[in-house]
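Morning!

This is the sequence you dropped in the shared folder:
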Amino acid sequence: MGRAAPRAALRRMLKNEKPGFRLSACADLLVHLNFLLFLRRLAEEARTNAFQNRSRIIKPEHIILAAKAILKKSRG
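The structure's back. Tokens below.
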């Protein structure tokens, strides 16, 4: 089993960023899950970019291209 989510740190960051918000008990877990899903998508997209460029190593430019593509897809 993996490590637990850093709930206290997440709550503190959310409270500092938006002090007037009222959060439910599991809002910090949803934020953490969303972050983990974003990281997974970023890693997969960067790996695909590296493979297309015939590179065995994922370089910063592969990650930047992947981030732009993922953020473009997730805008609503």
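Headline: The longest helix spans residues 27-52.

More detail when I'm at my desk.
O.
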